[in-house]
Amino acid sequence: MASVRTGGCLCGAVRYESSGDPVFSLQCHCRDCQRASGTAYVAAERVPAAGFRIIAGAPKRHLAKADSGNEITRVFCGDCGSAIYVQVSTRPDLVGLRVGTLDDPSGFRVEADIFVRSAQPWDYMNPDVPKYPAYPPGKSYGG
Ligand SMILES: [Zn+2]
Ligand SMILES: [Zn+2]
């Protein structure tokens, strides 16, 4: 793949481009993602930070401790509130891109449901997707 993908927030003030293939595609059911998104889970791709850049606008940042204890920066549009990506203090080389902000999110191929220990009972999950109570082994970064 390695093509350049573009995306942005709901109001269009913030735009980004991302090159480089996703290293991990997930659906996170942790409570932080539920609160930040206002819904059951967040669909995200970990993409190389080196290939990710904001090309328009100046998003706001919210710094908090994740369930993992890591510091996590949630980056969002200050005008419309769209959550765009997260970055974790322990993995500055990766960006956790919110898939729904891509101009074309149809290429998302989920590899795992993570933090299913805090998934809501009304949250339907595809039984064919691997499930992990928290992080999958070897992928213990992010929040
Ligand atoms: Zn916006
Ligand atoms: Zn989460």
Task: Describe the fold and architecture.
- This protein has a single domain, classed as Metal Binding Protein, Guanine Nucleotide Exchange Factor, Chain A (Beta Complex), CATH 2.170.150.
- It is built from 1 helix and 10 strands.
- The protein has a 7-stranded mixed β-sheet.
- Bound molecules: zinc ion (ZN) (2 copies).
- The site of one zinc ion (ZN) has 7 residues, from α1.
Features:
mainly beta, three-stranded antiparallel β-sheet, 1 helix, 143 residues, binds zinc ion, seven-stranded mixed β-sheet, globular, Metal Binding Protein, Guanine Nucleotide Exchange Factor, Chain A, 10 strands
Itemize the secondary structure elements and their pairings:
Blueprint: E1 5-8, E2 15-18, E3 24-28, H1 31-37, E4 42-48, E5 52-56, E6 60-65, E7 71-76, E8 83-88, E9 94-98, E10 112-114
Parallel strand pairs: 3-10
Antiparallel strand pairs: 1-2, 2-5, 3-4, 4-9, 6-7, 7-8, 8-9
Bound molecules: zinc ion (ZN) (2 copies).
The site of one zinc ion (ZN) has 9 residues, from loops.
Helix content: under 10%
Structural class computed from helices and strand pairing? mainly beta
Reported CATH architecture: Beta Complex
- Gross morphology: globular
Radius of gyration: 14 Å
Any idea how many domains? 1
The top level CATH class name = Mainly Beta
Mean pLDDT over the residues: 93
What is the string of SSEs from the N terminus onward?
A: EEEHEEEEEEE
Strand content: 35-45%
Count the E strands.
Answer: 10
